């Protein structure tokens, strides 16, 4: 399927996939500091000041983004299937479209039409999702740029990762 070109698309999958990895890495960093290590595991320049309330708003926005993306993926799958294609067929056709050396003659005119219709609907779904995601983030009182700053900080700071996970689990 097409990648969603939306703010925080990586955030959704990454925070949960990093779950146990984050905890293990944080514990490993705490257990194995080098003797000459004077800087914290996270460089000072990469952290941002964030209070508990802002972290909770981030987590709420994150959950909303995840829900929107899940719904969008479902709608995309349905759009593909409504055109008479499987997701695998669509993906293969999409890859063919992305490779200039790929001969378009490998697709029948009917398949090309099915692909174009599904692709147009996917573009619409992506645009709708982009707007919904931006609204969900700003609806939590966070500017889009700040959301991205927090996301970067959370990726780089195991303690923040744990705090966000705890908020999300409650």
Q: What order do the helices and strands come in, and which of them pair?
A:
Elements: H1 9-17, H2 19-31, H3 52-82, H4 87-98, H5 109-139, H6 144-156, H7 158-169
Helix pairs in contact: 1-3, 2-7, 3-5, 3-7, 6-7
Which regions are unreliable across 5 or more consecutive residues at pLDDT < 50?
A: 1-46
What is the residue-mean pLDDT, rounded to a whole number?
77
Number of helical stretches of at least 4 residues: 7
Summing up helix and strand content along with how strands pair, one would put the structural category as mainly alpha
Oligomerization: single chain
DSSP helix fraction: over 70%
Shape: elongated
Nearest-angstrom radius of gyration?
A: 21 Å
Domains (count):
1
Largest sheet: number of strands, sense, barrel closure: none
Distance between the termini: 32 Å
Annotation, overall tally of beta strands: 0
Task: Describe the overall structure.
By secondary structure, the chain is mainly alpha-helical. It is 71% helix and 0% strand. It has helices at 9-17, 19-31, 52-82, 87-98, 109-139, 144-156, 158-169. The chain is elongated, with a radius of gyration of 21 Å. The relative contact order is 0.21. The model is unreliable at 1-46 (pLDDT under 50).
């Amino acid at each position: 399927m097409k990648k969603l070109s939306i703010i925080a698309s990586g955030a959704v999958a990454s925070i949960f996939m990093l779950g146990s990895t984050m905890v293990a890495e944080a514990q490993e960093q705490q257990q194995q500091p080098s003797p000459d290590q004077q800087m914290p595991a996270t460089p000072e320049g990469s952290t941002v000041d964030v209070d508990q309330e802002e972290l909770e708003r981030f987590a709420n926005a994150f959950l909303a983004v995840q829900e929107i993306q899940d719904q969008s993926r479902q709608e995309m799958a349905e759009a593909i299937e409504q055109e008479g294609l499987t997701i695998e067929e669509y993906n293969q056709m999409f890859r063919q479209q992305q490779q200039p050396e790929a001969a378009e003659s490998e697709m029948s005119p009917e398949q090309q039409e099915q692909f174009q219709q599904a692709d147009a609907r996917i573009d619409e779904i992506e645009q709708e999702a982009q707007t919904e995601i931006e609204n969900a983030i700003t609806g939590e009182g966070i500017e889009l740029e700040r959301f991205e700053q927090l996301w970067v900080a959370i990726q780089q700071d195991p303690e923040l990762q744990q705090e966000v996970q705890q908020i999300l689990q409650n």
